[in-house]
Amino acid sequence: MRNFRIVFTVLSLMLIVTATAWSHGTMNPSTTFTNTQWMNVQLRVVAADTSLEQVAQTVDVSLFEWGISTNVIEVQEGTIEFLVSNDGNVPHALAITGNGVNDETEVFSGGQNRTLRVQLSAGDYELWCPVPGHRDLGMEVSFRTSGETSSGGTSVAEAVDTNSSGFIDDDEILNAVRLWVGGQPAPGLNQPLSDADMKTLIQFWVIGLPVAA
Fold it and tell me: Which residue, of 14, 70, 157, 158, has the greatest Cβ tally within 10 A?
């Protein structure tokens, strides 16, 4: 499945880049783009297969008698990885429910850790311990994901231009691919990159357009 996603991503971007370049008259038989710039990024995307699959927002969760604490109570919608530690003396587990999501870790002993990776849309959720009786003793906490946009006027291209050079370079387009595949927002944006965003970023990268007028 991982290899399929990587190949699909690379082929999709190749089609976008080719169509964009042709439409802007920047690709012709003597153009070196496909032999140098694109090949370089294509190879780096394939080499970064683990990064593509592992991009996620992480949330630290502590289970104890009788409560649950998290390092944050709200994150952006997308792939969330809960890093769960049992800081108590008896076995616990972590469950998450809400908006059609119903998932949980196995029950594990004190001093051990587990990871729970889920895809969450914007909305409210409950984190709780599914061990019988533990929720009633207070082991539950509310958790929220947001999909609202509040970029403060920052464009997608400006958000991806992390080195503030005014242009999208190879490293920045590669990072944008990681964010896009992982469903994560670019710094300064509060929503994941869409397919339309990626097409726009590819145009900035291929043609060398400045990210702001």
Answer: 157
